[in-house]
Specification:
The chain is of the alpha+beta class.
Length: about 220
């Protein structure tokens, strides 16, 4: 077996002491992330000025339909242009990260991917990769350009969050790129949304939907 460096070996007591010291910093990091999520829930939002038409399994679809009747929508901007012959490795791994969407749906939140390539080209890729994340094409629309993920003909990736108003007006509440797209678990994804996890321990504005921490979700076999 090829030699590789390993952590130092110590006694059980010394390991427990080192672990306890690290746990203090880990808990502080968790509290810092909770505070950031609370600030994210208080961000202002901006209204979409266009009624985008995308392409999906049933043909043309309006942007509002991507919500699936839910209040919040998370969009992963997948890097895949019309002329591309290969995919972005990072985006591919990101789709591998996304699990079942049941728990997001339980919190009134949908998740889809959108790419600039024509829809049949995207379907071929999705089928080959075995991805189950709902995917749509923005080909022929200004969606990617307006969202800042297509610039001067170059494709980029990112993650946007949208909120549907009571009159089906749509607002963009959040955007991130780079390592900001790494959160994959449904809890971390909900932390990016304006309503968050909607649990009663969260620091949220008055009137935000909330319920007991363990009082929601899908067991999937029920």
């Amino acid at each position: 077996m090829t030699h590789q460096p390993m952590p130092p070996v110590t006694s059980i007591d010394d390991w427990a002491t080192a672990r306890a010291l690290l746990l203090v910093e880990e808990k502080q990091a968790t509290r810092t992330l909770d505070a950031l999520a609370a600030k994210r829930r208080r961000l202002p939002m901006t209204q979409l000025q266009r009624a985008y038409v995308l392409h999906g399994p049933a043909g043309e679809v309006s942007f509002i339909e991507l919500f699936g009747g839910r209040r919040q929508l998370i969009v992963y901007h997948f890097m895949y242009g019309a002329a591309w012959t290969d995919t972005c490795g990072g985006c591919s791994r990101r789709m591998d990260d996304v699990g079942r969407l049941d728990h997001l749906h339980a919190r009134d939140t949908s998740f889809v991917a959108i790419a600039a390539a024509p829809y049949p080209k995207i379907v071929d890729l999705w089928t080959r990769k075995g991805w189950t994340v709902p995917v749509y094409s923005s080909h022929g629309s200004s969606f990617n350009t307006d969202m800042g993920v297509t610039l001067n003909g170059e494709e980029n990736f990112g993650l946007s969050v949208y909120l549907r108003g009571e009159a089906d007006d749509v607002y963009r509440t959040y955007f991130t790129s780079g390592r900001g797209v790494e959160p994959a678990g449904f809890r971390q994804l909900l932390d990016l949304t304006p309503y968050g996890r909607q649990e009663d321990w969260e620091d949220s504005p008055d009137g935000w939907p909330q319920s007991p921490t363990y009082g929601w979700g899908s067991e999937r076999d029920e």
